[in-house]
Write the structure tokens for this entry.
Amino acid sequence: MERIPILRMGQFLLVTIQVDMHDRLAMQLQDDLTQRISEWNSKGVLIDISTLEIVDSFIGRMLANIAAMARVLDAEAVVVGMQPAVAITLVELGMSLEGVRTALNVESGMELLYELRGDFHEEIGG
Amino acid sequence: MSKLPEIIQNHEEGIRSEWLKAMSTTVRRSDLMTDSEIQSQTRELLAAIVAGVKSRDITDLDAQAWTQTREVLQSISASRARQGFTPSETTMFVLSLKQPLFTVIRKELSKTPDIVFDELWAATLLLDKLALLTTDAFLETREQIIFRQQQELMELSTPVVKLWEGILALPIIGTLDSARTQVVMESLLQAVVQSNSRIAIIDITGVPTVDTLVAQHLLKTITAARLMGAECIISGVRPQIAQTIVHLGIDLSGVITKARMADAFALALQRSGRAVVATQNGAGAKKQEAKKEE
């Protein structure tokens, strides 16, 4: 079965969505990602959707869900590289993805994750 | 068989001079038009009408023979629309032809009252149709002008300015409606991607009023920018607008707002790890000049 690869980069996970998202693929990604986060004890997930051109409300909700699930598992999710058309569509659908962190590209997304991890360390006094 | 075509043909000059006289009392606008212009327009139109009536069919203005008349009328009324005539003034230009024409008809056919009535009716029909044609053409030109102006406004009103590396500014002038929000949103998001900017300042100094709809449109734009990873700052909030926003119960708590664009820019610089430093008496500038000279 087709799957979206999940790459491990140290403490973080990198997911690049390069195919058209259909519903089953999205569910599979949710399963895999939560599995990996708990398995590898990851502190952050970077989801790159720069090649995603079409979204519907299901995909939008899935992005929000993944972020929420990651947070429950003590990891931060950052969505990067959203296309203008996708952003407009999501807003028109009434999905503002509250609580999902965003960045312009993978580079600034990584920076953001490093920043956030630094915060965690300070919080626990490390 | 109608005698109208012959009558018009035979009395072309007489009708024209009477017509000019009639117009001078009703719709003459010497501030918008010179005498020679109106002379040439009446001559052109009457000649076209004569050419039209020669076809002996004075009811069907869509026919081939009337093409010239239609074109002349359309160009006259288009030029009048641009010059700023009112619709009624433009229509009166054609309708004031009625009186001279009727006078001629009465004079010519005074011995046969029955036929006079028929001819008058035919002439009325003809002139009414011409007048309607004029109004249509007038409105069409007006609409074209309005459409063009709308497009110009749309293009003028959505510039995206790059203030610094990674900082964009979007001064909004005029009221935000749905169509404009779409354009503003698209151009902002496009600029964010192109220039890789993390911060966008939306300046609403030029927005006359902020109601719930405008606020909703603003929030949409901000949310879309946030989804792409750019942060928005609203600047140029006037005291009056601040009051309106609170009175309307618009929730802007998730948005950074600043009174002046300068404040927003300072914050944007701070967020991107930069600062503006004052130099003493332009010493910095002099030093740089000295360096250049070296």
